[in-house]
Amino acid sequence: MKTFKIYQIDAFTKEKFSGNPAGVVVNADGLNATQMQQIARELNNSETAFLFSPDDSSCDGIIRYFTPQSEVPICGHATISAMYAKAIEDNLDSCILRFKTQVGILPFEIIKEKEDYQVIMTQGKFELSPTFDTITSQNILSALGLDYSDKDERCPIQIASTGHSKVMIGIKSREKLNNLNPDYNSLIQLSKEINCNGYFVFTFDSNDSEVLTYGRMFAPAIGINEDPVTGNANGPLGGYLIQNKIIDCKDNVYEFKGKQGEKIGRLGVVNVSVTIEDDLPSLITIKGDATVVFTTEIQI
């Protein structure tokens, strides 16, 4: 029997019971995939992160992510949560840790300030798929409960990814966003057809000058009907906005804040930074706050 320490962290917020909750097992050495899946199912967060010791000198550790149903390659809010938990557990000063993920070795920056931490996650390589054909686009809109007239005409419906892909759907109205009632079975079927599990619906309809977008993210195919605040949706959104020239950026870095979770009472903020080279996104990072809700232990 070994005792494993678990943190429950709310990411992209400083208020408990808001933002996006994630479980973090900070000493996961010895756990196998079946046990990690069981722990993730028991905690029943959208994702649980597992931190392992490094397997070679190329990294500071290994991180794996599980939804209640399956392993996923990368996760934004669970990374913020995991690095926040590690910083507390190891009483870290400001530093950069390199962790091995299924999308490569990524640097995660821990910023210590006033005895608390923020985390900056460098995301994987940005990729943008071609715009969907009219029929597929209409099927996606219909499954989300949207009409074509709801769509923001500046925003093509296409898949964006920094390691865990999302379909980007820009719409005109925040009221419409908050009233969405998707057909989850239809989204599950569509996910099989388009090979993408996440649907990120966003709008520029913001009454806060500091907040560019509000969004909601649905991924029923991997057991997440709605994810409260999604780093791996808001990050790729930044690349999508730059590559499609939806945002006019004269500098080589574009930064914005995306809010998510308003409808389900778990509001959080993702700070996105996109480095631009030759008018294309070359590096995407997200920054977030976090707070500990509780810690516990499990013996296996």
TrEMBL record:
<keyword id="KW-0413">Isomerase</keyword>
<dbReference type="GO" id="GO:0005737">
    <property type="term" value="C:cytoplasm"/>
</dbReference>
<dbReference type="InterPro" id="IPR003719">
    <property type="entry name" value="Phenazine_PhzF-like"/>
</dbReference>
<protein>
    <submittedName>
        <fullName>Phenazine biosynthesis protein PhzF family</fullName>
    </submittedName>
</protein>
<dbReference type="GO" id="GO:0016853">
    <property type="term" value="F:isomerase activity"/>
</dbReference>
<dbReference type="Pfam" id="PF02567">
    <property type="entry name" value="PhzC-PhzF"/>
</dbReference>
<comment type="similarity">
    <text>Belongs to the PhzF family.</text>
</comment>
<feature type="active site">
    <location>
        <position position="47"/>
    </location>
</feature>
